[in-house]
Amino acid sequence: MATSSSKDFELDVSDYVEEAFERCGLEVRTGYDLKTAKRSLNLMLADWANRGLNQWTINETSITTATGVREYPAGTLTMTVAASASFSVGETITGGTSSATTTITNKPSATSFAITIPSGTFSNGETLTGGTSGATTTLSAAVDLTDFKSTIDVLSVVIRRDDTDFAADRLSREAYLNIPSKSTTGRPSQFFLDRQIQPVLKVWPAPENDTDVIIFNRLRRMDDADTFTNDLEIPFRFYPCLAAGLAYYLSIKRAPNRIQVLKGIYEEEFERAMVEDRDRASFNIKPNVTGTVIA
């Protein structure tokens, strides 16, 4: 008998909810059943961020340095404007209406800036003025903070200069605070991730040019379950784990007599999925036979 030749099995949010209710010995009957299940699902996804690395949520991100600028968003942050050519990298721009400020770190195109995290909130359509150049332009779209705010952690950082990558060491909050002269310039060799609601990547020494590139692997949060027709941002090997986890979460509210059984199944499924999702690398052992005497 021929196989299906199909590899596109996919569950949406409503499918997971139905499966979870069935594992609890229940049926979805009301709109509130769906609402409480979706809330539990999003809480579970948040918990997954605390349980360790999920390989599919690691993104490599690149940020071009600006001379003297040592704080960068821990992700992508750009501003769309009418024209960027007359502005200078490294200068501060100010919103004419909002009085919000930010620093230009790069000009990716003729109509965009890469920027530091703004102080204040820019207003769409307002005039922007460069503090050094005196140039003006108009903000064409609201500044979207979503990408870098989704960063959970930064796993590794390198500084690329002339096609050569140099590793940067991670600092603790205390070690970064104790650096006596944070304005010292050079090729950045250390970094500190300030894990605020708006996470900030701080590098030291402060960059000495506008051409080095900070390349980092960051762990970001998964997309939310917003509507019941949404697919979820997980690989197929995590399908059983998600279904088991949602059933356990719902049992706490709807089927307390099944909590222990469903929790055990969930933890087993999660452990199996995490083992499969681990990072792999070759490991070789070479014996040292120097000075060995064979009788």
Structural account:
The protein has 295 residues and is α+β, with helices and mostly antiparallel strands. The chain folds into three domains: 13-54 and 222-276, no CATH class; 78-144, no CATH class; 152-220, no CATH class. The chain is built from six helices and 15 strands. A seven-stranded mixed β-sheet has the order 1-15-9-10-12-13-2. A hairpin with a 5-residue loop joins strand 7 (127-130) and strand 8 (136-138). The protein is globular, with a radius of gyration of 25 Å. It starts with 12 loop residues before the first helix and ends in a 19-residue tail after the last helix.
Key descriptive features of the protein:
alpha+beta, single chain, seven-stranded mixed beta sheet, six-stranded antiparallel beta sheet, 295 residues, 3 domains, 6 helices, 15 strands
Strand content: 25-35%
Task: Report how far the terminal alpha carbons are from each other.
Answer: 65 Å
Shape: globular
Q: How many domain regions?
A: 3
Radius of gyration equals: 25 Å
Number of strands: 15
Q: What's the order of the H and E elements? A: HHEEEEEEEEHEEHEEEEEHH
Q: Which structural class fits the helix and strand makeup?
A: alpha+beta
Number of discrete helical segments: 6
Mean pLDDT: 93
Largest sheet: 7 strands, mixed
Low-confidence stretches: none
**Helix content range:** 25-40%
User: Looking across the biggest beta sheet, what order are the strands in?
Assistant: 1-15-9-10-12-13-2
